[in-house]
Amino acid sequence: MTVGSTPGELATYLETHKAQVDAALERAVANLIDDLSAEVREATSHGVTTGGKRLRPVLCVSAYEACGGRIAPATYDLAASLELIHAYSLMHDDLPCMDDADLRRGRPTTHRDLGEDATMRAGAALIPAAALQALGACRALGCDDGRAVAVTRALLEAAGAGGMVGGQWLDLLGEGQALDADELDELHRRKTGALLEASLLMGGLAAGAPSRVQACLREYGAAIGLAFQIADDILDATQSAETLGKNPSDAALGKSTYVALYGLEEARERAEMEVDRALEALDRAELRAPMLRALARYVIDRKK
Ligand code: GRG
């Protein structure tokens, strides 16, 4: 395997880091719940601590390590800040005013289990909690003020109107329309790509990566972001809701997809090209980073 790691090594790596991220998420929720009512606590826990691949935090930890950072519990706390944003976005995305989804990660969505009101409030509480979590983790890792602010800024910019929120808005506006390639790329660069890109950048920044390496990490992140979305569309078109653990499909929601735009075969080729682009960015950064290489492939080889 040219990517620098065997499938068995990658599986062990994912499992080990996911367990550490899950522990950090438990800590994060425990810090937050004193300020929440019982029903909002339950919704927070439901949305944050159950299921998920934890891809964004794992990418953050891998970038931190690849850039010479020494992994400590606070590295996982930093990485978990990304998952807090991701969790809120999924909880809100599933609400009736957005995708009105029944199933997520193989379980009823948070609002189906615990109600819209608690889900809305839990999701909103997670946004500032994530920023505070990133800042606190940077301090615990010994980052100076400038670096801690840069890391936290990267998270908030990716989550904001220029990133995920703006992408979601384009997604909602685009329902029932056939978006062209540029429109679809822009939507997903913001909706999905921005947070994936920030995962890499935050890990690199926290480890003190120079700006040349930061730029390469961003390019790696942008490339796997696009590859991730193409793979998502392929899975959406070829697998059942039961296998994917989510419902409804994008097609049922009238969304434009890469499969509809390019067909299955070309969509697969384009995803491969983006993985190559990600690996070239690592080469340019002169980062050996075997796990980042393996993760780039995982993004398109995953089964859900
Ligand atoms: C009010 C306009 C407005 C926006 C609010 C709701 C929201 C912000 C944003 C939603 C963004 C969104 C749903 C992005 C989807 C990202 C995505 C591809 C999710 C699936 O990621 P995986 O496969 O999921 O990593 P797991 O379950 O493994 O964590």
Please tell me about this protein's structure.
- 73% of the residues lie in helices and 1% in strands.
- It has 14 helices and 2 strands.
- It has a two-stranded antiparallel sheet.
- The two termini are 22 Å apart.
- The site of geranylgeranyl diphosphate has 17 residues, from helix 4, helix 8 and helix 9.
What is this entry, summarized?
By secondary structure, the chain is mainly alpha-helical. It is built from 14 helices and two strands. A two-stranded antiparallel ribbon has the order 1-2.
Write the layout of secondary structure elements.
Layout: H1 7-33, H2 38-49, H3 55-66, H4 73-93, E1 103-104, E2 107-108, H5 110-114, H6 116-140, H7 145-159, H8 164-173, H9 181-206, H10 211-238, H11 241-244, H12 258-262, H13 264-284, H14 290-301
Antiparallel strand pairs: 1-2
This protein binds geranylgeranyl diphosphate.
Proper CATH architecture: Orthogonal Bundle
- By CATH, the topology is Farnesyl Diphosphate Synthase
Percentage of β-strand residues: under 5%
How are the strands of the biggest sheet laid out side by side?
1-2
Low-pLDDT residue spans: none
Keywords:
304 residues; mainly alpha; two-stranded antiparallel sheet; binds geranylgeranyl diphosphate
